[in-house]
Structures are given as structure tokens and as C-alpha cells.
Amino acid sequence: xxxxxxxxxxxxxxxxxxxxxxxxxxxxxxxxxxxxxxxxxxxxxxxxxxxxxxxxxxxxxxxxxxxxxxxxxxxxxxxxxxxxxxxxxxxxxxxxxxxxxxxxxxxxxxxxxxxxxxxxxxxxxxxx
Amino acid sequence: xxxxxxxxxxxxxxxxxxxxxxxxxxxxxxxxxxxxxxxxxxxxxxxxxxxxxxxxxxxxxxxxxxxxxxxxxxxxxxxxxxxxxxxxxxxxxxxxxxxxxxxxxxxxxxxxxxxxxxxxxxxxxxxx
Lengths: 128, 128
Fold this sequence. Notes:
2 copies of one chain form a homodimer. By secondary structure, chain A is mainly alpha-helical. The first copy, chain A, has helices spanning 5-10, 22-34, 38-50, 59-62, 66-78, 97-106, 116-120, and strands at 53-54, 82-87, 90-95. A 3-stranded antiparallel beta sheet of chain A has the order 1-3-2. In chain A, a hairpin with a 2-residue loop joins strand 2 (82-87) and strand 3 (90-95). Chain A starts with a helix and ends in an 8-residue tail after the last helix. At the A-B interface, helix 2, helix 3, helix 6 and helix 7 of A face helix 2, helix 3, helix 6 and helix 7 of B.
């Protein structure tokens, strides 16, 4: 479903399981950079809420120009977070769930050796 | 353990569970922005690998100047990703696991109503 499955291979090393190499840190930072724009996060959330979205229906709610929205959608697609499919005159976008799962794993607060389920479940041993 | 527990309240709405408001998107984007620098990711990974780290021992492996490392550590602490504690003449840093768990939840590929365990387990229904 993702148009750019190779990019899924690049990212994402677990951030907290051991010292990252420079290359690993750059790959992971690049994905976070794509996510560091509020308009892009709103676009992702709108596509997720709709199941799939045409670019044409995203311009108005996000309150940006059509070229800006197209640019953001292209960046999100290139980062493997959205997949795109042309149908007739419109391009439709969907979330790529595996990419978000990979990011979740990269952010696991415990080393990879422990179960990732423990780190996402509600009863973590952390005292805050 | 976190010195700035209030910041944990601000972030992080689930990105893919429904359309984010502008304010929610800005809060979440701000955290990703802090994570969008490779040197900061390397610092986080080094602190995690060591359990806790003194700023003094992070300068050389990350290959940046002491003021630059201090700036990055301050940004990571302000974002609630690191906690800091002064002991004698040095400041020691630790990962704030709950902050990473919150980010993992924000990136869950399914709406919050479904179990977060399903979204992190290896057998997602996604075809990539």
C-alpha cells in the first residue's frame, strides 16, 4: 500500500535501547522533522479520521493554500506516513499504520529486550 | 522524577484518533520539533544507555561544543524528555520514561478505543 516501502527500512532504530550512530540519529530525526509542523499533524489526523481523504477536501479545514497543503501531503508521503493513490482526477491519501508502529517502537522507553507491550500498557512501573 | 510534570499534561493527544485542534497539533508538533535534531537523539540514546549521565561526559562522544550540548540538554529537559538533578558541581540527566510512553500513545496507528497493545504487537493487519 505504501508507495515508498524502502523508506520503511531506513527508520527507525530504538532511540533508548543503546547509543545511536550518527546515521541512525539522522534517519530518525528526519522523520520527526516531517512531524514537527502543526498543519501536517492536522492533515494526518484528518486523513485518519476520514479513513482516506482526497487532497481536494483537506485544503479548507486546514486553512492553508492548496499548494501548501500539496507540499505538506508530499512530505508526509515521502516520509512513508501517508500512501497515495490516483483515482480519476483526484489523488487519495491513507495513513500507513506500519510506519506509525515503527515510530512507536523507536520511542519505547525501555530497551528492546523487554516487551514493547509493557512500555505501552497502562501500568508502567514509572513513578511520575 | 520529572522536574516539569506540568508539561506532561500538555502533550500528547492521539494523532490518529480524530481530527486534532490547532492547539493540540501545536503542542504535539513542538515535541517532535525538539526530537528533530540528530545530536539531540544521540544525547537521549547515550543517557538511556548509561542510565544517567553527567553533561560533562556527553560533550566528547556527541562531537559538539559544550555550550551546544548544554543547549540541547536544556531543550530536551524543557520538553519533559529528560529530568535533571544537580549533585555537587555537576548536573545529572535521566530519561523520563512516561514522556516517551505518552508519545508512543500519541502515535498509535488505531483510534484510542482499540487496545494500544494491538497496535504495537507484531501482527498488525497492515499489508506493506
